[in-house]
Amino acid sequence: MSVYRAGKIRLSEDVRPELADVCLPGPDESVLGQYARMRPQLAAFHAFDKAHILMLAEEGLIPRGDAALMLAELRRVEEGDEIETRAATAEHMHSGEAILTARLGREVAGKMHLGRSSGDLLTVSFRFALREKLLRVTAHLNALRRAVLDLAAAHIDTVMPGCTHLQHAQPESFAHYLLSWASAFDRDAERIAQFYRRLNLSPAGAAILNGSEFALNRERVGNLLGFDGLALNTRDAVWGRDIEIEAQSVMVILAGNFNRFAEDLMLWSAPEFGWVETADGFCGTSSIMPQKKNPNALECLKGVVATATGFLMGTLMVHKNPSNVPVFDWVRTMSDAWRNYDEMNGALRLMTAVVRDLTVHSDRMAAASTRHWATATDLASALVREAGIPWRAAHQITGITVRLAIDEGVAPEALTTALVDRAAVEHQGKGLGLSQAVISDAMDPLRSISRQLLPGGPARPRVEEALVAHEDQLVQDAGWLAEAEGRVKASEVRLEAAIDALLA
pTM (2 decimals)? Predict the structure, then answer.
């Protein structure tokens, strides 16, 4: 807790952990060192070593006894912390061979790298490690989608001004506004699932360019590592870079979506609006101005798109080189991917927590929706329906009506038949004679929303339909996630069972 925040002088809560984790990291080893020595990939190297050794033995490419010695030793490594044990070797992708050489000697350990290269070690580990992070992004995105739908269901009849150019446009419901983000996040989930299908293909056995003259069983290794198929062409499997670029692009689009959402909420939390308010635990105060309630979480979320874009630009620049030149700069872009995905997972948790605890000041939204002539389009539509005039004439008469009313200080809810007729006379030389009931109905924001019955509109029946559609999509996507996670988990069981069989 900040020293100047103590005593709850303005905010009633301590800093929430979601905000602290994303925006307030300390300069400790866990933050500075979590990407050192390829730590995010070490688990992948470990699994790949086991699967590759097992396959070599099954295919008769190395003696089963030597494979058993190596696999048993890797199991002994797992009795401690295999990640830290591998990191301590400083051998990165070759840490398994380094450990086994030290424990079993070169005569045995020297056989494990048959048919492999640093190339497929790196590409397998990238896809393997990113897969887990991508599935976590999906889970956190689904949680955010759940929170947005729950909030929308509670605000179907909450009237708010719609805006374009930061000017009042037409009234809408807060639920309709929220469902626009549900639509965007549905597309993000679809993009992630499509990317996962391209990502989760195994480069194992591609070596560095041409594969191997030894009869490696690429399908077997891929299956043991939880991949859904092969990255078939051995050159593309190692040197194709669109996967890394797409990995960053998908995150930039996702960050851009919740950035715009956070931008709106931040604007609306300003006292001049006062439409929404984030919980105290997601806010900060000032070290000099004790009255302040600053929306820290929203500010932090808005910054994520900037760093995500930076990671994408760095990846694009590395991969502009001749197609099989960059290696160690390529390794740098892998680190950028871990940082981007880890930051994205934290940001999604934070955005979800903000939405779940968001206070919506419905009364202020509704009051704002009656000002600034937001229902002028409804008035023009009423002129078309009731007076039988062309749309353009109705548009012009309504525009003149608004100008006259503003000049004379007449509020929208006080608009009269006489004022509309004056505007009509100015435009076409004669009045329209609409009843006051027609004009009052046209100017009512809630009635305005109820008339917007086209598919996808803000009227209650359309919003209720949309909620059902989004709910169904979320259930379907949650099912896809469970299946994908299940296939990965099943592969881990297959690998260990196959090792057990060989050791037996």
Answer: 0.92
